[in-house]
Amino acid sequence: MAAYLDREQAGSEQVPAEDNPPAPPELTALAHAYGVDTRYDAGAGPVQVGARTLTAVLAALGVDAGTPELAAAALERHRAQTAARLLPPTVVAWQGRRTALDLPAGADVRIELEQGGEDWELTDEHAHWLPADLPPGRHVLAVRADGRTARAALVVAPPRIPEPDGRHWGFLAQLYSVLSEQSWGMGDLADLAELAQWAGAELGAGFLQINPLHAGMPGAPSDPSPYRPSSRRFADPVHLRVEAIPEYARHEEARDLARRARLLREEVLEHDGLIDRDSVWSLKRQALELLHTVPRGVGREAAYRAFVRRGGEWLERYAVWNALAEEHGAGWHSWPKGLRHPANPQVAAAKAESKDRVEFHRWLAWLVDEQLRAAQRAATDAGMPIGLIHDLAVGVHPDGADAWALQDVLAAGISTGAPPDAFNAHGQDWGLPPWRPDALAEAGYAPFAELIRASARHAGAIRIDHVMGLFRLWWVPEGARPTEGTYVRYDAEAMLAVLALEAHRAGTAVIGEDLGTVEPGVRERLAEHGVLGTSVLWFERDWRAGGAVLPPERWRPGCLATLTTHDLPSTAARLTGEHVELRHHLGLLARPLSEEQDAATAELADWQRELVRIGLLAEGEPATPEALYAYLLATPAKLVGVWLPDTVGDPRPQNLPGTWDQYPNWRLPVADATGTPRTLDALAAAPGTAGIAATLAPLNALPPGHADRRTPPGGAV
């Protein structure tokens, strides 16, 4: 049999493109049956996906297609299994619409409601339609027909996600970078509450969007990126304000550690140091270990137990993984074999042996949850209509807690990324295992629902990184180059329904980060269900008119409009061209320096002319951050985001894609134009802050009585 994937060579070595031959018809048909694309177009014309790539991707979906004969047999089995099924594993229905069911004549249908109560019975001709007035929820659809029975998850969702009333502006901040005079060397959850109180009460800001606070990988040196976490379900205890824990007042030694934390803070603020997450966590952990020994009062004990009950299996697995990682290291793939799956009996035995450590990590999760709740309450009490916007990363570290707990619904041997495009000819490999679409459907999308529920728990809105992943993701087989991946399709209808249902239950809006390669129709589908997009000023061009600047009245209203993001140059750097110099210094330019500088100068000139055209600048006047934010105000965008470092002219990006140790990604405190770190109090007093806030003030006028709720910096938590 002719094999087109040599299994002996399918390990970690890179496979040359010339050894990735075209796929035969059997393999192509099988790939299509499983939602695997066999060609793609990232802007440079269609590209055929090679046989090796398709075979490796199908293997990650549990399908052996190593030869044409095996592929043909697998396709026949798939067709037979599909034909024999009464129901798909998950059925989606939208409120207000009847949903057709493809069932045999005479089928009996029963809907078991999530909330309990009397089941819905559908018989005769009604058995082929789900009614339009089903209550929203995660129900069970049970069918009996032709002597067969079947059960499926039934997700009934409202057609639209709730959107914010009116238009609002707010800050975009990387929490770790915002230090106060009380934080321990990096921004914490008390700083978050204080920032929200000040922005809402003093400036009339409507929201505060922050970086993902997901739990990071343990161990040192740690990965400072918030977008490659151990768990997306739980936040990282490094963000805790130790002094805000009630038991802190009752432990003298813990208070001594707090005094030592002053040195970490001074190193960043007074000596132009970088944020040292590992040192911060080392000191905080010592304090937290001490505070865990302090008995809790009956009220706090009851609150903790309620949190544990609510957390259920997700919390238990997260705490157990952390306890096991303390003993065996974070890389669970190299743990003793019996510990590599949470359902194994050896895990239950290890949990019993490490019950004190499991309890410690449950307790840490509770403390973070309490302080997150306090921060959102501070935001809304300060008059913010939305409050906090939490960021949901696109995936998790393959060695982390979520990858261990959810390995049955994640694809092994696969990493997500992006195909080659005009900006990156080599493509991207993010090192994050993707959801298996088939396993998600079999699980009724419960893991995805729980993830959205957790993200929305203490938020007025959530931002979904790379929201296009609800439709398709670029899968890169282990050992292959990013150019040798392909897109794998997800049931977007189901993903959107689960998202809409959980957002509806939480009362949260949803913002999708839809920058980069976006398939036609995706933005329209997202907008149909109320998902706001992301529009960055510098990218808003009319490409049908030769790339001319897009006039403000033609911007889409359903978006968060910004001047930059954590991965892009700051506004100050755009206005001076400093971002080009930085990339040249680090060897990241794809063209000669002079060409890049000319392109940046021409881009800025385009926007200056547009600012003059609509009356925001005088002829010959240089562009300013205030003028650019005024331009965003002139668009119909529902939300306008102000990059917090723009208030003090910080020219440095927080993250510079394409670098690792060449640039201090995710470790920079907010600084002014000279590079001097600025505290939260200094940001509040900065002239640039007042200027930008005044520019955007019309977006959210203070409601009656708002001034009575004003709180000076320092009054949070």
TrEMBL record:
Residues 87-158 form the MalQ N-terminal beta-sandwich domain. PANTHER family: 4-ALPHA-GLUCANOTRANSFERASE DPE1, CHLOROPLASTIC/AMYLOPLASTIC, 4-ALPHA-GLUCANOTRANSFERASE DPE1, CHLOROPLASTIC_AMYLOPLASTIC. Residues 1-10 have a biased composition (Basic and acidic residues). NCBIfam families: malQ. It comes from Kitasatospora cineracea. It catalyses: Transfers a segment of a (1->4)-alpha-D-glucan to a new position in an acceptor, which may be glucose or a (1->4)-alpha-D-glucan. GO terms for molecular function: 4-alpha-glucanotransferase activity. Its EC number is 2.4.1.25. Belongs to the disproportionating enzyme family. It comes from the Bacteria. This is 4-alpha-glucanotransferase. Gene3D superfamilies: Glycosidases. Keywords: Carbohydrate metabolism, Glycosyltransferase, Transferase. InterPro entries: GH, Glyco_hydro_77, MalQ_N. Residues 1-24 are annotated as: Disordered. One of its GO terms (biological process) is carbohydrate metabolic process.
